[in-house]
Amino acid sequence: MDSPSVFRGIVLNRYKLIKEKEQTRMTKRKIFEKFKICVEGSSNWYPMRVPGSAMDTFYQEGILPDPYQGTNEYQWKEFFNNDFLVKGVFDVGPEEFSKEKLMLVFHGIDTIGQIFLNGTELGLVQNMHRRYAFSVQGIVQAGENVLEIKLTSPLKYIEKKKTEAKRKIHLTNTGNLSGSQYIRKAHCMFGWDWGPVLPDAGIFRPIELWAYSEAGLGETLVRQRHTKGEVVLQIETTVCGNNAETESKVSYELFSPDGAMIYEGTQECITIDHPQLWWPNGYGKQPLYTLKVYLRTSQERLDEKEYRIGLRTLTISQAPDKWGQEFAITVNGVKIFARGADYIPDDCFYARITKEVLERDVQAAVFANFNCLRVWGGGYYPSDTFYDLCDEYGILLWQDLMFACNIYDLTEDFIENIEEEAKDNLLRFRNHASLALICGNNEMETAWENWSDAKGHDPSLKRDYLLQFEYILQKIAKETAPDTFYWPSSPSSGGSFDNPDDENRGDCHYWDVWHGQKPFEEYLNHFFRFCSEFGFQSLPSMKTITAFAEKKDCNLFSRVMESHQKNPSANGKILYYLSETFRYPKNLESLVFLSQVLQGYAMKTATEHFRRNRGRCMGSIYWQFNDNWPVASWSSMDYFGRYKALHYMARKFCAPIAGSIRKQQQKVEFWISNETFEPVQVQAEICLKTLDFEILEEHVLSCDVPALSAVCMDTRDYQELIHGQADNVFVCVEYEYTSGGITEKKKEFEIFVPMKYLELKDPCLTVKEYEDGSVLLAAKSFVPYCMIESEDGDVIWEDNAVALTDETPVLLNVWLNQTDRKHGIKVYDVYHTYH
């Protein structure tokens, strides 16, 4: 019996002779029909979808309730103390059965499973992050075959491992179950400070039967050498199969982005003249070349694979400068300012993370003018579809390996397991244009140095951290993805416990605003080189809340609402920051709206500051992008794909050309950030107004803003003008510029007292909804924030969470209808949160 391993087979010289008996192509067929599942020890079997899981089946069959509603999640936690049996039946046809090699390939089993085929044990799987392949020649039968999988309870497994461990580990992240480090399963399935404890078990990615004769293609590495006017592809392909006697060759076809063939042959170096370069979103287009790889004999094509290649150079510049060392993603020689958020798994039902969900995600990133997502290390490695979409849309990926906020016991078995996991995934996504860097883990270097809960462990565990992330995984990354930058941890200054939180080197996570309850203005005192985590919580929309809470539970401190808030002190923090900014809201709806405005304003304050210091800071990645269930959290897009105020505001403060205002008491600076390749001339009209729109001072100016820069257009001191009336005035600036042949106008405002002290008046809002779903808003007095949402269905508008700074109506056009809807909208504004 072959031992389970990632399918690489015997690597042959690509021109080596291969035995040629039956010259037929490799076939790959998904197995997904006639599966069922039961709790071990029970005779009650239920039909199971593949991909699918225990949680999916027992919920669909009505055995247990929706884990996302009320407090149902706690019933499910107990349920996962069970082991499960999965049984499937599949047919093998005569043509498949006649092949010399038959492999059963599991692309994602969650997590500990014994696999049997026709009563013969194939082996043990123990890592949801890996692909497993078993040779089933001699075991598989022509006709019907029975596949059985025994899935061990992850809860019982980690308890057993904790008991057996010689070196005890007590570090446990907020919301996470103790022991999650002993199993190679998404850590957040054991809970996090935004997610429930739902450690599912099942088959979350396809099962395939691979049939071939003698040989098949292994993996292909495509390296790029860029010179003036051309790019040379250096291609390395392995072949898998048995030693043999008949010649086979690897050949290639290369197609341009428009589909024209530009190369056909067996050369491993292909020169592309006049290359079309791939750029991140906002910097250019994303042309993708298609490389087809074939394994042939003189008579037959044995196998083929296809890759899409973006031509670009990509690394991280750490050049020394007057502040320390920069940390800048550099694409095609250009240092870009990274703008984006941290991505977590989209669901606790992993089989629900479909192509449609992933496309929703990547389109949401483009909507917000992101050019980067950080795939966070406490989740999972996304499917190939995710990387394809990021290539297509120009979203750079900071790719964590799946280790986070933990201490690991480096046994021999564990080392072998994570080595195979790293190779398997790096082989899968290493050729993607969107892959910007590989990072060893999330927050583990800083944990060893700075977290009190990390103290008191066996010193050998700290030594093992260095072995794991600065030798084993770094070596595998260098060997497997040799052209991709490796970074040991996030945050880090480069490793070896050398002040991982140094603001003048590497990347930083900053949480004094929020966890430390410091004011938003504290962001302005820090000049990180690259801020890869910072965040602020908000409540999801009322439509999302009513999806999990009954009317009687719609109170911030009800058991249900607190169960959907996994950070123990978060609701208090939201109320604290709200008390510093707004008047006390009259109901939960108003609290939801204000919490989202607070969140948006916090992230706006930080990102605009980072962008104003372009060159010193080169990245702003806020926590977090999405949710894995309906919950109060740091996300800007909730579980249902509904945009919070932050996501709409990010569209503006992450725009390639964005205005911002910096206020220091009564002195105000007006800035423009230009993250494009062309200089831009900006016209600006700056007005000091009363809340009734009376203009107290008006100033018009223009400014030339160089490419890839941030410029202060003007500084004005309003001390004398606002004396005695600071609670009745605001300053507004309207920017106008032309970029890419398109003229745009944008507005920003600032006030001189906390918003709770503004003497806002009833704005007498007029709201007009058109047949196409667009909405026209107008007001008689200042509205600092106004947000709309559809009453039925889900709509994303091109703009939302807007300020009304004069009587000119504001038109909000529809960007996307997520679900069918009828007419009817809900309108929120600050004044009516307390009147």
Reported for the largest beta sheet, the result is: 6 strands, antiparallel
User: Low-confidence spans: pLDDT under 50, at least 5 residues?
Assistant: 1-24
Strand count: 51
Q: Please state the structural category.
A: alpha+beta
Which strand order does the major sheet show? Answer: 4-3-6-12-9-10
> Which shape, going by the Cα principal axes?
globular
| Average residue pLDDT | 94
Number of helices: 15
CA-based gyration radius: 28 Å
Helix percentage: 10-25%
Beta-strand content estimate: 25-35%
N/C terminus separation? 74 Å
Task: Walk me through the topology.
Layout: E1 11-12, E2 27-31, E3 35-39, E4 46-47, E5 52-53, H1 54-60, H2 73-79, E6 84-92, H3 94-97, E7 101-106, E8 109-110, E9 112-117, E10 120-126, E11 132-135, E12 143-151, H4 154-164, E13 190-192, E14 195-197, E15 202-203, E16 207-212, E17 215-227, E18 230-241, E19 249-255, E20 261-265, E21 269-273, E22 289-296, E23 301-309, E24 314-317, E25 320-321, E26 324-325, E27 328-331, E28 334-335, E29 338-343, H5 355-367, E30 372-375, H6 384-393, E31 396-400, H7 412-429, E32 435-439, H8 444-450, H9 459-480, E33 485-487, E34 508-509, E35 531-533, H10 542-548, H11 559-563, H12 570-581, H13 588-612, E36 619-622, H14 645-653, E37 657-664, E38 667-674, E39 680-690, E40 695-705, E41 709-717, H15 719-722, E42 729-739, E43 742-750, E44 766-769, E45 775-778, E46 783-790, E47 795-797, E48 802-804, E49 810-812, E50 814-817, E51 825-829
